[in-house]
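Can't attach files on this board, so I'm pasting raw text. These are the components:
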Amino acid sequence: MNEHQTRLEEVIAKLRANGHRLTPQRMAVLKVLVRDREHLNVEQIYEHVKADFPMTSLATIYKTVNVLKEMGEVMELGFHDDCARFDGNPCPHPHLICINCKKIMDIDIDDLDELPREVARRKGYQIISHRFEFYGICPRCQETSN
Amino acid sequence: MNEHQTRLEEVIAKLRANGHRLTPQRMAVLKVLVRDREHLNVEQIYEHVKADFPMTSLATIYKTVNVLKEMGEVMELGFHDDCARFDGNPCPHPHLICINCKKIMDIDIDDLDELPREVARRKGYQIISHRFEFYGICPRCQETSN
DNA sequence: TTACTAGAGGAAAATGATTATCTATTAGTA
DNA sequence: TACTAATAGATAATCATTTTCCTCTAGTAA
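---
Top answer:
Structure tokens for the assembled complex are below.
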């Protein structure tokens, strides 16, 4: 799971450059979000961090995640029926979400990149970001419900 | 602003068919959401309803909106940095959102309807719904910031 | 290595949106 | 016109998230 080791180091460097510190708790958050690229909520990140640092407070996770968000190194995905999930890849990209087990995965769809530009042109908006999500039932959950 | 008068009447009929009642407060909520198709949050709906019925409680708006949501006649759009907005058109459709003035408008994009089916085929998911949103700055807000 | 200091952590209180509760009221029906 | 279950209104409760306040420590410089 060392896929995004390089970006992990970049984020750490940027953290320091912005006058922030690299604490063990922060390192643990970065590992699970930026390096392992899991799409977790704060409670789930908290569980991961507590495995290594049992004294950790939930507030610390919230603070860390907000620092990363403000630096633009992490993206927040808010939902109506659930708490927010965080993505270590801050560039907008489509997601596929199982409404049963709540798993979130990235998907590649080629034609989509052109869309924001077209909307900007047609509507006169200055497009900053976008959000493409598909909600459904993943293969595993389809099986277990039968 | 009588664009969606027919659907307003359909929703009222369905409300009654489901054993619900049509109260003046509910009628006011339906008018602003289903007939006028504004994309409002609960507080904004509350203000509209209070104009006609000053005694209305915020809790009533929440309850009404939840009844409509459970009946599938209204769609909820949750955001990370703001409270939920409601859309009187429950069929998934793309939105264009100004991050400055928070205005939400519907947009037409032809090619998008095929996408959920393609994702379903490629990933083995049973796609139930989707969400396409573009975030940017509307022409009016671009002017005022200069 | 040590000392310094601003940033960070921990615990708990505060906040704010949303939901639940509990009567009094009323829409729809007989 | 009366009946009754659904609804309104007021308020308390809930839950995710933020803030506060004080102690601790990462990073730096002597």
